[in-house]
Design goal:
- The protein has about 400 residues and is mainly α.
- It has 17 helices and no strands.
- The chain has helices spanning about 5-25, 25-65, 65-100, 125-130, 135-140, 145-160, 170-190, 190-205, 210-240, 245-265, 265-280, 285-295, 300-315, 325-340, 345-355, 365-370, 370-405.
- The structure holds aspartic acid (ASP).
- Aspartic acid binds near residues 376 and 383.
Length: about 400
């Protein structure tokens, strides 16, 4: 049985068993005997997030060392990725806030087990900026301070590149460690049906059937964000910069979009994305640079999902976020989406990082974990659509430059 099937079955079973405990009036059984297994799973997720972020980012930076050679294509691509990802975060936040203000997200589900979460504090920008830079590397790791971990990754990645030949051993060590941590992550992900079943049982037994409606709403919110972003950012930029009409764009990208929707892996969709981009007029050398890079660092669907999920989970534990905290979400979700691997479920692991940065208990992820596959289908589809649109735009910009040079 494939993992997605196992997760769906675990989800359904969890709902059924949870409803049984809810209706017989014994939710404490789930708290005492089911939830601990879910907690073990969440602990494993927490434990893996720091090494994954650290190593994947250093590894990414090292592989970008070549980008200097690719010069002009490189910076245009990265600029396109960053601008569209920031737009994606804003779209995600806007829709999440609309849903929140319309009362469609629950406020304070009291899942906190008596713990008190820090309410919103108005963060001072300069303090936040200073706090991003670690004074002690190990403390950043033990506190799982993700912004600091990213700064450490940037420093070491840059340092390894700058060291040239002498940094070769460090490069190989990072590559090897990343391969190992990737396997460990795959193992933890393989345990997810157990986590889903036990946590879903506990959530439904304690919250009753209403929680299912909330999950449908948060899913709806994310999909509205995905669709708006695809139409507003991608089809408009493909039209404005590459002269491809929205209809032609979506029709041309459809095969890759469908594949991404079902495979939930940008990486696995690379060959098809490239084919679709080339069919629509992208230069092959541009698309062979943009598409794989995009499948690694350009994840706008993931960014939207992380913003929506963060607002939803913050609401669930009774936190009201300030504008300053929303800005932190934009920054962390942009970075987290860049660090997300193009593999199934990777965006959810990185969500843990956004939650850590916002002081939202990572355990809350379990609320939406069971339906992550449904989020993932839409976000992967959006992720690769952005890569295709970028390949078209950069091709056009490069050809204009070539004409001017001639
Ligand atoms: N599955 C996504 C992708 O491959 C990443 C994610 O989980 O957000 O693009």
């Amino acid at each position: 049985m494939s993992l997605p099937v196992q997760i769906v079955l675990a989800l359904i079973l969890g709902i059924v068993v949870g409803l049984i405990f809810y209706f017989i009036g014994k939710p404490e059984i789930t708290t005492n005997y089911f939830k601990p297994f879910g907690t073990i799973f969440v602990n494993l997720l927490k434990f893996i997030v720091v090494p994954v972020v650290l190593l994947s980012m250093i590894d990414g930076i090292i592989s970008m060392g070549d980008m200097k050679k690719v010069g002009s294509v490189g910076w245009k691509t990265v600029a396109y990725f960053l601008v569209t990802t920031a737009c994606a975060c804003v779209i995600g936040l806007v829709f999440a806030n609309i849903f929140l203000n319309a009362g469609l997200f629950p406020t304070d589900l009291a899942l906190a087990d008596g713990e008190v979460w820090d309410g919103a504090t108005s963060a001072n920008f300069m303090d936040t900026l200073v706090a991003i830079f670690p004074s002690n590397m190990w403390k950043a790791f033990t506190d799982a301070n993700m912004l600091q971990v990213i700064v450490i990754a940037l420093m070491f990645g840059g340092g390894i590149l700058a060291a040239g030949e002498k940094g070769k051993l460090a490069q190989d060590i990072v590559g090897s460690l990343y391969a190992v941590i990737d396997r460990v992550m795959a193992f933890i992900i393989a345990l997810s049906p157990i986590g889903v079943f036990t946590m879903m049982t506990w959530v439904v037994a304690n919250q009753g059937p209403e929680i299912l409606g909330h999950l449908a709403l948060v899913l709806l919110c994310a999909y509205i964000g995905y669709i708006v972003h695809a139409v507003v950012c991608y089809s408009v930029s493909a039209k404005a910069f590459a002269g491809v009409s929205p209809f032609k764009f979506f029709k041309g990208a459809a095969p890759a979009m469908i594949f991404a929707f079902t495979s939930t892996s940008s990486a696995a969709t690379i060959p098809l994305s490239k084919e679709c981009a080339d069919e629509m007029g992208a230069e092959s050398d541009v698309s062979s640079f943009v598409i794989p890079l995009g499948a690694t660092i350009n994840m706008d669907g993931t960014a939207i999902y992380q913003c929506v999920a963060t607002i939803f989970l913050a609401a669930c534990c009774g936190m009201t976020l300030t504008v300053g905290q929303m800005v932190t979400i934009v920054v962390t979700a942009t970075l987290a989406s860049i660090g997300t691997a193009g593999t199934p479920g990777a965006g959810m692991i990185m969500l843990a990082m956004v939650l850590e940065a916002m002081n939202i208990p990572v355990d809350m992820i379990m609320l939406i974990y069971g339906i992550d596959r449904l989020f993932d289908m839409g976000r992967t589809c959006l992720n690769i659509t952005g890569d295709i649109s970028c390949a078209l735009c950069v091709t056009k910009w490069e050809s204009k430059k070539a004409k001017v040079a001639r």
